[in-house]
Amino acid sequence: MSKSMIAVIGGTGAEGSGLVVRWAAAGYPVLIGSRSQEKAQAAAAELSALLPAGSATVRGETNAEAAAAANIIVLSVPYTSQAETAAQIAAASQGKLVITVVVPLKPPKVSVVWRPEAGSAAQELQQQLGDTVQIVAAFQNIAAGHLRDLEWQPECDVLYTGDHKEAKIVARELIQAAGFVGVDAGPLANASVVEGLTALLIGINARHKVPNSGIRITGIAR
Ligand SMILES: NC(=O)c1ccc[n+]([C@@H]2O[C@H](COP(=O)([O-])OP(=O)(O)OC[C@H]3O[C@@H](n4cnc5c(N)ncnc54)[C@H](OP(=O)(O)O)[C@@H]3O)[C@@H](O)[C@H]2O)c1
After folding, report:
1. Which domains are seen in the chain, by residue range?
2. Closest C-alpha residue for ligand 1 atom 44
3. Of 9, 18, 49, 64, which has the fewest CB atoms closer than 10 Å, so is most exposed?
């Protein structure tokens, strides 16, 4: 059966580009979304060169066009540009699954937990896009560092949250396709905790002088 088309909005960036590589290698056709179609196409060419034979195609488009053409949309932009970017994909995202990897960080103290008024960036996104959009928050705790390296075996888990059962099943499949164990962390309201953990990990990285600390849940079947 053919796999769903994924649009990675901000797939030109550190985190999004790693996910693009992993999903394309797992057979999902990917559209990279960018504010600039030229930038998206250049990123698609660069990432396609990293893919093993038999991978799905990667193409570049503007954010709105990528979102319109895909069945599943992934939002991977800095929190400060979340609202502006969400406005570009709002029409195209109605009725679809939107996976957000966004973490709200408040410079300069990015190792201190900071929450937007809605409780989390994911809830703020849900408010902006409306109720027909099925939001799942995931990958907040996965550092971009090794994502493009398909030989890398992750030790960390992906905690995912959301309010729509079917959407969470699809999101879990994508988490597994990217090479991770997905752990259902409950409703979207819990995204506030998962997003907050990233600030802790940034501080742990600094104190332990490591680039990519992560979270792994113990006591569950794998
Ligand atoms: N990096 C990590 O290790 C990591 C880990 C977990 C979660 N996250 C979260 O994932 C999201 C993406 O992180 P990232 O490190 O990939 O970010 P990034 O590389 O700084 O930016 C990602 C993309 O967002 C777009 N963008 C950047 N600045 C923008 C602006 N001012 N206005 C509109 N669009 C802008 C750009 O795409 P175009 O120029 O092509 O439009 C850029 O390539 C963030 O919310 C981050 O907190 C990151």
Report:
1. 6-208 (3.40.50.720)
2. 78
3. 49
